[in-house]
Design brief:
alpha+beta; Nucleotidyltransferase, domain 5; Gyrase A, domain 2; 3 domains; five-stranded mixed beta sheet; 8 helices; ATPase_NBD; transmembrane helix; GspL_cyto_dom; GspL cytoplasmic actin-ATPase-like domain-containing protein; membrane
Length: 365
């Protein structure tokens, strides 16, 4: 199990300080920048000075981190004289408390801290404000010395310990000083489950993506297996459909044979059955339907009569009709057109005994 190196960033009058956590206890501590082993797998946590970070607490939307940060930025803009575009705002959570901690720090200051750490070969997993290392008291205030800096923590406050400021905020009540053992236990707990990490948004730590070639190979073989199974299913379905189509075609052929003339040799049952139907029914729409349409048009046109009709193999019917006037010829054409036929007069109609007679060619449309 790797250790955790906690680095307290220096200020103008306080140097680097550090402590090392191993097996959930503070195993070592020191002043100045520590020597980093070349092959060290330690995780790194940076603690920034309390006077450089402004802490607020507020109830925020809990649907997503983006919504929480947006609401926090609005609160920070109202509470700060610095333009919000120059501030970095981070949102955390303390257990099940409704009020969530908000850290506000100048963007340039955050950049300077990370640049200083990078210059010393450190890319910290966490950047914690110093007051957030202290536990949240149920009431009153706690005080502790962190890296040579005094910090005070209340239920919804955290700040650097300055005599006049502290008295003003606490109302003159003296904060309870944390003993060393309790402070170290609190630091271990805060590093293990941080309630407010400033490495968010634009300052979030970039993680390298490792390629698991073994997993990729397994996924490749799985893809091949899925493709093979899918192809096999498709082939089986094609065989099933082909067999079913052959069976339907066989049954249709047997059925068609029953409609062929008795004694006729069968070579193509479908074609022979179609030919017999055409012989029985006639071409086009057949004699019966064509004649029915003609007589229907005659009945619908008073004063008209059919004198002769003839039906050819192509499905056209030549009808000789007698009418009283030319308007009835047009009415006959319209009736036949509505029945799905084209009716075309064959030449001029002749007048005899006060009536007109002539031929109309009726064909399926």
């Amino acid at each position: 199990m790797s250790d955790t190196l906690v680095l307290f960033l220096p200020t103008h009058d306080v140097p680097w300080r550090w402590l090392r956590i191993a097996d959930n206890v503070v195993a070592a501590r020191g002043e100045g920048f520590p020597t980093l082993p070349a092959e060290s797998e330690d995780s790194h946590v940076a603690v920034v000075p309390a006077d450089a970070v402004t802490l607020h607490w507020a109830e925020l939307p809990d649907r997503s981190l983006a919504q929480s940060v947006t609401a926090a930025r609005m609160l920070a803009a109202d509470a700060s004289a610095t333009p919000i575009g120059e501030l970095h705002v981070a949102v955390g959570r303390e257990g099940t408390n409704l009020e969530r901690p908000i850290g506000v720090v100048a963007t340039t200051q955050m950049q300077a801290w990370l640049a200083e750490l990078a210059a010393n070969g450190i890319d910290p997993e966490l950047v914690l404000p110093a007051p957030m290392l202290l536990p949240r008291p149920d009431s009153g205030y706690l005080r502790a010395d962190l890296g040579g800096e005094g910090v005070v923590r209340g239920p919804t406050s955290g700040f650097a310990d300055e005599a006049r400021l502290t008295e003003l905020i606490t109302g003159g009540a003296a904060p309870e000083v944390m003993p060393r053992e309790a402070l170290e236990a609190a630091i271990v707990a805060a590093v293990a489950t941080p309630s407010l990490d400033l490495r968010q948004g634009a300052f979030a730590r970039r993680t390298s993506i490792g390629v698991d070639w073994g997993l990729i190979r397994r996924l490749g073989w799985l893809s091949v297996a899925i493709f093979a199974v899918t192809l096999l299913i498709t082939l089986v379905q094609v065989l099933i459909y082909s067999s079913a189509a052959d069976e339907l075609e066989r049954r249709a052929d047997l059925l068609a044979r029953t409609g062929i003339s008795r004694g006729e040799a069968v070579s193509d049952a479908d074609r022979q059955l179609t030919a017999r139907i055409e012989r029985l029914r006639g071409g086009g729409m057949g004699f019966s339907r064509t004649a029915a349409a003609v007589f229907g048009a005659i009945r619908a046109t008073p004063g008209t009569e059919v004198r002769t009709l003839s039906f050819d193999p192509a499905g056209a019917m030549r009808v000789t009709v007698g009418v009283q006037n030319e308007g009835q010829i047009l009415q006959l054409q319209r009736s036949l057109d509505a029945a799905g036929f084209d009716a075309t007069p064959m030449g001029q109609f002749q007048s005899s005994s006060g009536r007109l007679s002539g031929d109309i060619m009726v064909k399926p449309r």
